[in-house]
Amino acid sequence: MTAKTLFHKIWERHVVTQQPNSPAVLYVDLHLVHEVTSPQAFSGLRNRNLKVRQPSKTVATIDHGVPTRSEDGSKIGRLAFADEMSVRQIRQLEANCDEFGIPLYGMQSENQGIVHVIGPELGLTQPGMTIVCGDSHTATHGAFGALAFGIGSSEVEHVLATQCLLQWQPKTCAVNIEGELSPGVTAKDVILALIRKIGVGGGVGYVFEYRGPAVQAMTMEERMTLCNMTIEAGARAGLVAPDQKTFDYLAGRVFAPKGEEWERSLARWKELVTDEGAVFDHEVTLEVSDLEPVVTFGINPGMSIPVNGKLPDPNTVGDEAQKGGLQKALDYMGLTAGQQLLGHPVDVVFIGSCTNGRISDLRLAATLLKGRKIAPQMRVLVVPGSYSVKRQAEAEGLDQIFKEAGAEWREPGCSMCIAMNGDQLEPGQYAVSTSNRNFEGRQGKGGRTFLASPLTAAATALTGKITDPRTLMQP
Amino acid sequence: MNKFTLLKSRAVLLPLDHVDTDQIIPARFLKVTDKTGLGEKLFSDWRYLPDGSPKPDFVLNKPESRGAAILVAGDNFGCGSSREHAPWALTGFGFRAIISTSFADIFRNNALKNGLLPVVVSPDYYHSLLRRLENEPQSELEIDLGTQTLKVAGEPVAYFPIDDFSKTCLLNGVDELGYLLGLEEQISAYEKSQMAV
Hints:
Chain A is α/β, with parallel strands linked by helices. In chain A, 32% of the residues lie in helices and 16% in strands. In chain B, the strands form two sheets. Chain B has a four-stranded antiparallel sheet, with no helix packed on it. A four-stranded parallel sheet of chain B has the order 2-3-4-5.
């Protein structure tokens, strides 16, 4: 038998057919839907008089445009804070789900949250599945050994109508994360370091498989952070082979298999490893033992430095395009070549998103914020990734820690990661954000983003300037 | 979907690498429930001043850009978000083809489904094309999908890659959903086989 990669095992099992000179017809096990990229797809179905082929393999939630403010701390009345267009878009999804029979974790649901947070926590996300969503951070679900990737709205329509997608087989890349992380250094720092190493286009055409001791040592939530930002390196999907941690995480979750079905699933999931001797098209290795916390300084996630480092000089890098790109980034960010980021003043800290809005991320931030106050004039938003995360945080008293420190404790949603819901930077403001994109204006027109881990974000919240979290950690 | 066969047009130059879809169409414009009207918002934050008037130095606002249906842009065009609003905004403005040294995967897929042709050229060709168009902005480019060629008078012909399937869809203006719907039998058979597992 030929040795196969994890990717090939999942891929081959999901190819319905492939005709000559045509892409594979790939079957989709789970289709996640949200309000922003789906309305045109549902309209397309209506225009052709089509139904949703498998409503039971489709799950919707509302996350991108949902306000996170709520006067009484409950979810009731949140829509009052939304603009008219967002309300219309949210109502449209409700109507579409109703018409086409799709389960919706909507505004009134106890399970509402960011689509990539609720999939795993409900046990919808399972090893070996193919998972798609009209959202590039669908890569997150790869942490479970599922082939998960973002699609456009036309493809959303294809999957709704046929449960299938036309796909050319991508190439495979082994990403070996070697070594052991030091205290204060997180999965977020690892993925930012990887993107810096290979570039924001370095993964185009590939599916990554994250391997090696540092990946094995990560918790499921850390693996989700790692896989989440795979798309920022240009690769559509990143995989981690499922192991005991994966199975322990899934056991007992709402949609996880039960009883005999669990045993059968487990046996199948344990086969989901890259065979000894299987060949990848490409391989990258990142040594993380000496890694420091990483902060981005520019306008794409590949532009980052160690928190204690200095900014690169456009005159000393690559070709004309790279020089120009770096100078453009420094100009936009109001920074100078050669300067340190450490100590740079910051106006807003955002802790949340599908990258770092899970309970472990909030716990990390709380370790630094506990018993301390955020810097004067600093605005700090803590936005849980889902209601489940919010309930858990409140049960542990994390909300009190955040509020006593002076941070705003919000309702779940994408919030300031994409700034569609009113949570946004003012022009010129600087933010340290635990989200995934520092593109120009991503967090509000004219806003300037430094991406970092929840620890670095919390440390910065306390001092009002970019801070190495290790200097504030208990020894 | 609009057919794509032969395109003759002047080009607009945007020689930046890693142009992300947040720049092509900022997220605040994603609250629409249809595909129309996004051409106005294309590159909004680069194109308009805070008061909403056009920024005179941005390339799309220059008189010579008017009517151009080809965009020439830097490496890894369309990275970031999966929003199909990006090709909707580009086609809404009037672009039918984008020439670059590479495209982000999701953007490329989305573009092809909207009759917007991603034309991949070598870095050498890209740089010589840039020089040529900087000196002679009125030059007409000819993109022939049938022969997969890109021609500019006085320059060598460039061949660009595209898979046969996408090419056929574009040449005939057919969309992929019709093809998928035609595979109903195979899809049903697959579903039955999986239920047995």
